[in-house]
Specification:
By secondary structure, the chain is an all-alpha fold. It has helices at about 5-15, 30, 45-50, 55-60, 65, 70-75, 85-95, 100-120, 125-140, 145-160, 175-185. It has eleven helices and no strands.
């Protein structure tokens, strides 16, 4: 267990816009979580780790990347603690501090490809986004099996009409999209 870090704990509360001390560990967040069965650390234990200041340990958990962001945990909380917001804050801290596990690297690379695609076009272009993700992920990890498995999916997706090579037209007000990204401070 890492040393308690009150600065990181306060940052989680600020990012999540919630009070960690309001959580009294009833377990409703974990009981309602649709992904609880595949989490190494369930939401209740993540909340407790952050409460006692073990933000780094919570930010290293694979569970924060398995979360669907469905908000069930927050909706079920009898004290209105923003559990989902805490998990989002932990994701941000994890990326900023390099706490990513090997299994979470692929998730974060996909999210970055998605955001790059939105920033470039104002909407998603699945083919462009998929190529961007696969090339960047391969160059980062040199995962040949992942590349081969993905390449095998291409023909199947084409025959089922799930992939198109027609590039979508960008939104008309790309300046608005640019302002949104600037306001959010998103750097990719």
């Amino acid at each position: 267990m890492s040393n308690p870090n009150p600065d990181l704990k306060a940052r989680v509360e600020e990012l999540a816009n919630t009070r960690l001390s309001d959580c009294y560990q009833c377990g409703k967040c974990t009981a309602g979580c649709p992904r609880g069965d595949v989490m190494d650390v369930p939401p209740t234990r993540i909340m407790r780790a952050v409460q006692i200041g073990n933000v780094e340990g919570a930010a290293r958990a694979d569970s924060i990347w398995r979360c669907l962001s469905c908000l069930t945990c927050s909706a079920r909380c009898p004290k209105s603690v923003n559990v989902s917001g805490v998990i989002d804050a932990l994701r941000q801290i994890s990326v900023e501090n390099g706490y990513l596990s090997a299994s979470s690297v692929k998730i974060t690379e996909f999210q970055k490809s998605f955001l790059r695609n939105i920033r470039r076009n104002g909407r998603t272009n699945e083919t462009e986004m998929g190529v961007d993700f696969e090339v960047r992920y391969f160059l980062r990890r040199f995962d040949v099996m992942n590349a081969l498995n993905t390449a095998a999916l291409g023909p199947k997706m084409l025959t089922r009409g799930k992939m198109h090579f027609k590039l979508g037209s960008p939104v008309k007000d790309k300046a608005l999209v640019k302002r949104i990204f600037e306001k959010c401070g998103v750097e990719l």
